[in-house]
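Hey, I was hoping to borrow your eyes for a little while. I've been staring at a protein lately and its backbone has me curious. You're getting the sequence in one-letter code plus the fold written as tokens. Would you mind checking whether the tokens look sensible for this chain? Here's the protein in full, and shout if anything looks odd to you:
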Amino acid sequence: MSRRKKRENRNIQPDTVYNNVMVSILMNHIMERGKKNTARKIVYGAFDIIKKTNQDPLDIFNKAIQNTSPLLEIKPKRIGGATYQVPTEVRGDRKTTLSMRWIINAARSKKGKPMKSKLAEELMLAAKNEGSAIKKRDDVHRMAEANRAFAHFAW
């Protein structure tokens, strides 16, 4: 029984160009300090770069999110003075949140290019099951697999 109050899901409006809620969520993740217009320029700029390679940006984006979504993650659980890394299944919205976070962080960690081209590159790599975001997902899966012995502590 959880003591916390259930979080209410916010109703996010789809973006204006692609009429897609996921694209809107991506913009919200990229946005820093409330600068929605800058985030919009980055996302649409990245999608334009993907368009120039004769690919559908929405297909690439959805494939990238699908490929980088983790199945398992580890959560620390304290039992009798020791902290165990317990592997747990990742549910619904958290999958896409982690996936977007990893893609954006992978794009931000690259240097020497505008953000829109880094994001486009990372999305295309993730759609092909390559790149830093995929490596991050694999690392998380490997950690969960390594700590499988503590799965019986799952709550």
